[in-house]
Specification:
This protein is α/β, with parallel strands linked by helices. The chain has a single domain, classed as Rossmann fold. It has eight helices and twelve strands. It has helices spanning about 40-50, 75-80, 95-105, 115-125, 145-155, 175-190, 210, 230-240, and strands at about 5-15, 15-25, 30-35, 55-65, 65-70, 80-85, 90-95, 135, 160-165, 200, 215-220, 225-230. The strands form three sheets. It has a six-stranded mixed beta sheet with strand order 6-9-10-3-11-12, sandwiched between helices. The longest helix has 16 residues, at about 175-190. It is globular and about 55 Å long. Bound molecules: adenosine-5'-diphosphate and magnesium ion. Adenosine-5'-diphosphate binds near residues 18, 36, 40 and 42.
């Protein structure tokens, strides 16, 4: 059993604070969904937890089974069992998917016996063309193929906790169902390390949640979780939008000598 614990996480990017104290606890087998309007900080949250360069942590903590993730570079977080499915997967010319999977398993101290068979089986399971296994990672793939590719990597690596940033963006309905079902199965079945996947799923749409069943829904607005509830919260959002969760902008301190002073008397 693994637990990712995010406590009072505050972070900025390009000098602007985006996360204002996020708290989330995700354990093996659980599906936590984060929904929120554009610009709320969802991708920033995934980037800070995974250790993408360019983000400054201002406070709080992120631990995986008690180990401080914020002290580690991204590759060591991955070795520890964290995995990010990116909203916009990178194209990596000259490096094939099967080679990446082989090296990733070796880096984790895991066996590569039977890897070719596993890759073929996983490709068949999610409708990923097997010839793409030997092509350069994501180069010239369609949006749907890239997300199937990301899902395949998740299924082969079987991390402890995965963050999925808009798995549904750029996917047609068939690919969405295939990918969502595969992730759902990972959260239900014990993996090679004897535990089920815990997932933090970022999405805008209920449709993803038809095949990938949420245990808990969180609503992130302006860098804070403003509501947490069961799957019914996603239905309510679909109906009513985010209006009920609107938070006023914090007033900016006006600069001395600014026009505001004219009205200060
Ligand atoms: P979401 O994924 O919820 O739509 P993001 O986390 O991508 O939101 O963005 C939150 C805010 O942070 C936005 O206002 C965005 O413009 C800003 N932001 C994100 N990344 C950067 C960056 N690298 N440089 C400058 N601003 C950024
Ligand atoms: Mg985003």
């Amino acid at each position: 059993m693994s637990t990712l614990q995010i406590t009072d996480l505050r972070a900025s990017v390009a000098g602007k604070q985006i996360l204002h104290g996020v708290n989330l606890t995700i354990s093996s087998g659980e599906v936590h969904v984060v929904m929120g309007p554009n610009g709320a900080g969802k991708s920033t949250l995934s980037a800070v937890v995974m250790g993408k360069p360019g983000y400054e942590v201002l406070g709080g903590s992120v631990t995986l089974d008690g180990v401080d993730m914020l002290a580690l570079p991204a590759w060591q977080r991955a070795q520890a069992g964290l995995h990010l499915v990116m909203q916009y997967p990178s194209e990596v010319p000259g490096v094939s998917l099967d080679h990446v999977m082989e090296q990733a398993l070796i880096a984790r101290g895991r066996s590569t016996d039977g890897l070719d068979e596993l890759l073929e089986a996983e490709a068949a399971r999610i409708g990923f063309a097997p010839e793409l296994l030997h092509r350069a990672l994501n180069v010239d793939l369609s949006g749907g193929e890239k997300k199937r590719n990301e899902t395949l990597q998740l299924a082969v690596l079987q991390p402890r906790i995965a963050i999925l940033d808009e798995l549904d963006s750029g996917l047609d309905i068939d690919a969405l169902r295939d990918c969502a079902r595969r992730v759902e199965a990972l959260t239900n079945d014990d993996g090679p390390q004897g535990q089920r996947l815990g997932a933090l799923v970022i999405t805008h749409y209920n449709r993803l949640l038809e095949a990938l069943r949420a245990d808990v829904i969180h609503i992130l607005v302006k860098g804070r979780i403003v509501a947490t509830g069961g799957p019914e919260l996603a239905d309510q959002l679909e109906r009513d939008g985010y209006a009920a969760y609107a938070i006023a902008d914090e007033p900016e301190a006006s600069a001395p000598g600014s026009l505001d002073d004219l009205f200060a008397i």
